[in-house]
Design goal:
about 40% helix; about 270 residues; 12 strands; globular
Length: about 270
């Protein structure tokens, strides 16, 4: 039977990988070994350095949000309006990427969901963009806030306190909308992946806070919650009852959820 490892939509056939390695010459194998030792060794040393010298921000018991109104403005009469928009979006993309990688380096959280909002207000002369990030991993929100301040102050020295030696697997698909659910993952020693999450469909015995954020995103967008894989118990019933009340009353507050500070992927509903 072939052995496979699954992560998201990716599948690796380990038997095939071993066969491919077996077909390589000794010289090629030695080059691959040296490359892996160098890359993995460097990543491990960076992780140790950041966890020792720059410990993570304290995990709090609440889901955190940070936003900025009028983050950047584009004048309609400006011939470079589209270039300004692109630069503004690229800055938000870069800040999110650095904050995520910093979180992966300094904490135990390497795969989680956050909500990103980019909103536009338009008048006769200009379009003003605002943004907000919401996440249960406290370090990510705090790092995002710090980085935005450093970028606005053009403080390169402070920005360089963050490890910039990473790459994103694909461009971040930023969307001008409220509370879009994004998933950030560490997919290699120096590689991260950020993608828009698919709708929530699976109700397990213990919901992770990342899944809760997906439910919040759907509630904000008035999207129906359709569960095809359901495990019934007191916790799942309480969660469904909560979102049924949200649907009836239109009231949803992040203060209704308390996080386990030892494991931010665990939560309880307070109301």
């Amino acid at each position: 039977m072939p052995v496979t490892v699954r992560r998201g939509e990716d599948v690796w056939d380990l038997h095939k990988l071993l066969r491919d390695i077996g077909d390589l010459t000794l010289d090629r194998l030695e080059k691959i070994r040296d490359f892996l030792v160098q890359e993995l060794g460097g990543a491990i040393e960076r992780r140790r350095k950041f966890q020792t010298e720059f410990p993570a921000h304290r995990q709090v018991s609440r889901i955190m949000s940070y936003g900025r109104t009028a983050c950047f403005t584009i004048r309609k009469s400006n011939d470079d309006a589209m270039k300004q928009l692109q630069r503004g979006m690229e800055r938000l993309q870069l800040i999110a990427s650095i904050a995520l990688y910093d979180t992966f380096l300094r904490t135990k959280y390497h795969d989680f969901v956050y909500l990103g909002s980019i909103l536009a207000e338009e008048d006769s002369e200009r379009v003003t963009f605002s943004f907000e990030v919401t996440c249960h991993v406290s370090h990510f929100v705090t790092a995002y806030k710090e980085l935005l301040g450093h970028f606005e102050a053009n403080d390169d020295a402070a920005i360089n306190d963050f490890d910039l030696n990473f790459r994103t697997v694909q461009p971040i698909p930023l969307t001008v909308a409220e509370s879009v659910a994004y998933r950030g993952r560490l997919v290699g020693p120096c590689s991260i992946d950020i993608e828009i999450e698919k709708p929530f469909t699976r109700m397990t015995r213990r919901l992770r806070t990342s899944e809760l954020l997906k439910l919040i995103s759907q509630a904000v967008h008035h999207q129906p919650i359709i569960v095809s894989d359901f495990e019934s118990n007191d916790e799942t019933a309480e969660t469904l009852e909560y979102f049924a009340r949200v649907n009836d009353t239109g009231r949803l507050s992040l203060d209704d959820f308390e996080l386990d500070t030892e494991n931010a992927e665990r939560f309880t509903i307070q109301h």
